[in-house]
Design a protein that fits this description.
Order of helices and strands: EEEEEEEEEEEHEH
Strand order of the largest sheet: 3-4-12-7
Shape: globular
Distance between the termini: 33 Å
Number of helices: 2
Radius of gyration: 19 Å
Number of strands: 12
Helix content: 10-25%
Structural class: mainly beta
């Protein structure tokens, strides 16, 4: 896959979200007959689990609290239609962390929004099982696919012309 930055917007405005637009060439999706499957959040594709080990005897330490906010929009030709999207999910870990993911579509695009907040930096070994379960659940959610169905060119033309 070839990914090139097309534009970077609002770089000088720290009060507004940074907007980066990419041009992507190559395979972003897997084809299965009349369906295309692509990751809901391409930034998290093939990410390794944060906590792969079942047991931990030392505290978990993160260098700092942080907030990640991703909004990924994928535009596609009108010959495709959305068959399914990842379902929305909101999950909280105690009062220290929050994950939320939503997906929405238009006739020619899919937008996936993912927000993750980590407020605490130190977790005791007794909290590890719950922390690991929290991470495993949302990291699995990050890997869910968007499914597009390939329609006929005639159907896509008539849909485009009727707008």
């Amino acid at each position: 896959m070839d990914v090139k930055v097309a534009t970077i917007e609002k770089l000088d405005d720290y009060e507004s979200p940074l907007v980066v637009k990419f041009n992507v060439k190559g395979a972003i999706a897997s084809s299965t007959g009349k369906r295309l499957l692509f990751p809901g959040d391409i930034f998290e594709t093939n990410a390794k689990p944060t906590f792969p080990h079942e047991k931990r005897e030392t505290p978990v330490y993160f260098h700092y609290s942080y907030y990640n906010q991703d909004a990924v929009r994928i535009n596609f030709p009108p010959v495709f239609s959305v068959e399914s999207l990842p379902t929305a999910m909101k999950q909280q870990f105690q009062s220290f962390a929050l994950y939320a993911m939503t997906a929405e579509s238009t006739p020619t695009s899919v937008t996936v929004r993912r927000n993750f907040t980590l407020g605490e930096i130190l977790y005791a070994p007794k909290e590890y099982d719950d922390l690991r379960a929290f991470y495993n659940k949302f990291e699995s959610k990050d890997q869910e696919s968007v499914v597009l169905t390939v329609g006929s060119v005639a159907t896509a033309k008539s849909t485009t012309e009727s707008k």
